[in-house]
Request: fold
Amino acid sequence: MAECRNSTPVHLFAGGLGGTTAAIATCPLEVVKTRLQSSAPVFQPVKLVGMANLKMAPGQYEIVTRPAGILGCIRHMIHTEGVRSLYKGLGPNLVGVAPARAIYFAVYAKSSKGITRMGVDKDSPLVHMCAGASAGFITNTFTAPIWFVKTRLQLSSQTKYGMMKCVRKVFKEEGLKGFYRGLSASYFGIIETIIHFVIYERLKRMLREYHKHNSKDHIEKNNVSDFMIAAGFSKSIASMCAYPHEVVRTRLRQEECAGPRKYKSFFQTLMLVYREEGRRGLYSGLGTQLVRQVPNSAVMFMVYEAVIYYICSNENV
Reply:
C-alpha cells in the first residue's frame, strides 16, 4: 500500500482526473471571477435603431459597463453572449488542467518523499512547504501558455473566438513571449500553494487523530468528508492571504484595447491597481473566488484521494 501511494504514475493519473472533474464543475464561476478581476471594458455591437432585423454594421461597438457581483455578471453574460459564454476557456482549461494537476501532485509526492529521506518527519510543515513550492514552480513554468489563452478567452465578449484563433492572434501580435505574460504573478502565487498544503495536511492529520480517539473502531484513517473539509477550508484561507496576485496576473494577461501597455510587471501592476482602485481593487472578485474554490478544491482533492485509495486497495487484493 505504501509503495503504491508513492508511485508517480498513480499520482499523475489521480491528480489529472481530480483536476479535470473540478474544472468542469466550477467553470462558470471561474469565468465570472476572471471578468471581475479584469479592468478591460466590455465591447458589444451597437444596435442600430430601426434596423433590428439587419446585420450590425462592421466596426460599430459600444462600451458596456461591467456589472458587479456574481449574479449580476452571470445575468449580463447570458443576456449579451448566451449561456455558452459561461464556459469560455473550458477548452484550454481541460487541455491544461489534467497535465497541470498531474504534474503538480506528482512533483509534490516526489518532493515530499525526497525531503523525508533526509530525516525530516513526513508530517512536518517544512515538508509540505518545500514540496508545495516545488510543485507550484514547476507546474506554473510548464503550463503558463495554456492559462494565458484561457484567460484571454474568458475576457473576450466575442461569441466566435476559439482557442486556435486566440493562439494565432496572440502569436502574430505579441510573439511567443506574449504567452508568458503573468508568469511572474504565478510565481508569487506559490505562497498560496504553500499555505494551502500546510493547512490541508495539518487538518488531515488532526481529523485522523480525532477518528482514532473518538470512533468506535479507533482506526486512524481519513474519510471522504475529511478531504472535502480540509481542502475547502485550507484553500479558502490560502486564497484570502495571497489573492492580490490573481488580480495582478489577470491584468497582465488581459488584452490592451488601445495605446501602450498599461500593466507591465508584477510590482508595477500591484502598485498601480492599489493607487487607482485601493485595496478593494486588489481583492476584486474575491467573493467569486471563494465560492468557486471551496467546491473546486473539495472535488479535486476528494477525487484525487479516492482514486489513489481505490487503485492502491485493489492492488493489494
Summary: The chain has 13 helices and two strands.
